[in-house]
Amino acid sequence: QNNLARQVAGFHQFNQDPEVNVIILAALETTGWEEALKEAQATGKVVVLEDRRIDAPEDLYATYIGSDFAEEGRNGAIEMCKLLEGMESKNVWELVGNVGSSAAKDRGKGFSERMGDCGITITKSQTANWSITEAKEVTEAWLKETHDVQGIFAQNDEMGLGAIEALKEAGLKPGEDVKILTFDATAGAFKAMLAGELNVTVECNPLLAPQVYEAALKALNGESLPKWVPSQEGIFRATDPNLQEIADGRKY
User: Fold this and answer.
1) Mean predicted confidence (pLDDT) in 179-208
2) For burial by CB atoms within 10 Å, which of 12, 59, 69, 172 has the most?
3) What is the per-residue pLDDT for 87?
């Protein structure tokens, strides 16, 4: 239920269950895990981090399997620079995910590192908690204040889709009047790109289960693992000639 306290409580419950050998953690937030991880170590559980990094000593978990969110953010800024090339103003609005999550923190940090390469300015930034509905509401409020925006940097596809709806209702053409960049590369993003309403999506591959299973098995068998196993990811643009083909084969 997107509730950190509930997630931590569930972790503690697994720690006390003698039938549990492995705990897979996709953490809602980066902090607050050290006590639970020490407890897991004391009770002999193997912990594998999936999709989200945490702020905890590396010796408390077996490995992290997932994305380099900061690199995703840097790639996003590079793509936004391309989309805004030649424009006199490069005002960008940022829709932030869960502010405590590693994905939100690192995507924002990575984007900021590279946005100065072409003079992008983030003029508005607010969390919309990964939600279509909240992103639409936030964007609607901003649009009541000004239409001086050339790009929207949404930290996931859903928030980008919410912004698209708000722009259309305000009489603007998303993808043309305002360039849209999102993250995840889900089927919904491909549908929006094919409709010409979304320009670029940076992939965050969620199909991690085979890698997680393999890592857990190796850890249980006493094998040493690298502390980070990166997932395979790409960047997709509305201008890609084989976009329909990629969209048809999308599994998420």
Assistant:
1) 96
2) 69
3) 96
Percent pLDDT > 90 in the chain is 94
Q: Is the pLDDT of residue 231 over 90?
A: no
Q: How far apart are CA 252 and CA 247, in angstroms?
A: 10
Q: Are 28 and 7 in contact (CB under 8 A)?
A: yes
Distance separating alpha carbons of residues 127 and 146, to the nearest angstrom: 19
Beta-bridged to residue 180, according to DSSP, are: 152
Residue 49 has pLDDT above 90, yes or no: yes
Query: Please, are residues 156 and 180 in contact by the beta-carbon 8 Å criterion?
Result: no
pTM score of the predicted model = 0.84
pLDDT of residue 23: 98
Phi, psi of 24 (to 5 degrees): -95, 120
Q: What is the mean pLDDT of residues 151-170?
A: 98
How far from chain centre, in Å, is Cα 193? Answer: 18
